[in-house]
Amino acid sequence: MIRSGVDLGLAELRRTLGRLWSSTAALTVLVTLTLTLAGLADALERDSTGVLRSLDADLVVFNEEARLQLLRSRVPAPLGGSLAFVDGVQRTGTVGLLPSSLSSESGRERVTVVGYTARTPAEPTNVVEGRVPLDGEPGIAAADVHLRDRGIALGDTVTLAGDRDVEIVGFVEDTRFLQQPTVWVPHDLWSRVRASAFPEAGWSETLVGAIVVRLSPGADREQVAATIEAELADLDQDIIDRMDSDDAVEGIDVDVVPMTAALDAIPGVDVQRSTFSVIVALAVAVVGMVMGLLFALLVAERRPVLSTLRAIGAPPRMLVVMLLTQVVALWAVATTGGTLATFALAQVVPEAMPLALRPIVVATIAVALLAASAVGATAALRRVVRLDPATVMQEDTE
Amino acid sequence: MILGLRELRRRPGRFVPLGLAVTLLSALVLAFSGIGTDHVGDLNDAVANNSADLLVLADGAEGAIQASRIDLDHVATVAALDGVDDARPIGEARVGGRIDGELYDVSLWGAGPDGPGAPDVVDGRAPQAAGEAVIDLADAHLGLTIGSTFRIADTGDELEIVGLTEERRFASIPTVVVTYEQWEATLDATYPDADEVEPTLIGVQASSGADVDELAARIAATDAPLAADAPAVLAAGLPGIAGVRASFATATIVALVAVSAVVGLFFLVSLAGRRRSLEALRAVGAPPRTLASAMLTQAIVVMAASNALAGGVIGIAAMLLPARVPLSLSAGLWAVVSVVTTVVAVLSVSVAVRRLRSLDPAEALGGRR
To answer: Which domain holds residue B174?
Structure first.
């Protein structure tokens, strides 16, 4: 009976393709809308958090004063090395973020300059062309691919912060910070750019932004974080000596948090995620309800046909299978069409609008819409089950 | 027209699915826009609606307030420029606030008690002394009203709310304004080992008749490494704001286009479902103009009722949603959505009417299916 229902559903779809085009088009538009919203939300978050996601690290160490804000955090670089001896720590590195500008033949734009220690968890992992600079290499940088899209090529010389020329030797992908592209340079160059940008802050090669930590396999994240906080609050004298600090220092108060918490603390990310989650959930719910209403309209339109089928002996379950087949078929066509339309939209929207579709986003939305469609179609299916051929035919003759 | 209204009265259930679908879809567009507008405002209103004519930040900060630190001496440098009536330091920092026992990240602003940058309160008064603070109305749901108190988590200092601001939030977290001296003292006590506390911004009040753009250029041209912008310009250029604004604008435009298209297609589907009865009416002699008038009347009534309901749904949702998801109803957009969707519905019905005109009554009587 299931096979018959499926065959009947597909046969009717083939036969009534012309009449179903408007329903299919409506569903395709709704899927496009939902995927666009999900794509926007995803791209917005990724373009804010790329700089940290591109690191192969488990924990981030901020100075307490920064309250997990990467742009505010300042920790002495020697602390990174001192953590290598903490149980559970496999490797440490340091990163520093600095809002800056990049000038090239294509013009000037705002960027975030990232200082990092090479060959550590602070090195970006998504190198797509060329290479990233090693520690101490003078005058070279790796840039986010967004800048390549703006016309900057390998070997080009660009100017950071208006007065620091660097040669681009590589491109990294998906490393943006707060929607801005990043430029990755060794720490000494980063310190020089920082000194140019903030002359009053003075020159300090030892002061960086945050420490990133990769844990040994099986290490307890919370326990290691607590150990690091305790260790840094009471520093050994040799580390204090290497910190080159003018003040009498006994220890540094830090916040050590998992990478996920550091990502959530990037300004706006947490709230944007919850806001867009509400919007996408709202869209999926509305699309599900609209699909349900659409199927209700379709069932109402085809009541005479369905009741005739019932009158000639088709069991209700067969009609339900038939209708479900059509729901799934329409969903499949609409999802395919909507995905293609959204991909096309992503190619034509201006660069300022972050819209990108990842397979995981498409799959999640497709499943959610299938579930919403099935729920939405339930009322229509119930009406089919309750169809009384005699009543419908009587209505028809009225 | 009468035929259309009569059918609406006699068989309202026939139009319920269509009306519900339109209501939901219109509400969706209004929700996107409402949430987007409020969300962007929550991120940068404290800057955009600042009372200063110009806000000065460290040139090297490239528009990122979080990265700006200004030497206190530069306040005097700016204040001495021609065209400057007043210049005051403004501080911003993220601190822990213990409100009703719960710990929150709070954006603590230090400004005033008077002069440029001082908070414009809508209820109560601006903070005048140590221990006084104003908070934004949007954070009142946390239990903070005039006369209530909360503590700075790290110092234990108690602050009493003496006034409320409106649309002055920053970074989408509870936003509190205290006097600059209080802000300085709070940061000093919170981080005793830190370097000297420095202002984040300088608020500038231009002299009467001074050209603000020219003044901004003069501030940037001083020896001090400073940049100046009007509050609205600075707010629009904060890192990430353009992307968020563009995302919500895209969402609203795509939703409006999609919803309009779906509304049109829904009317086509709905009219296809009523084709038999319309054919029968043509067959018994109902002129196409009468049927067209009836269908257009129904479309306009359904659209008006649905869009009114959509506005109501968003209005109620705005009151019920948690403060974490800000939502407001834009009357302008509501009007645009109503007009656009109604026009599309009417166009859609017109297409169906054209098909109806070409229908041969004899063929309809023959029961072509």
So the answer is: 54-229
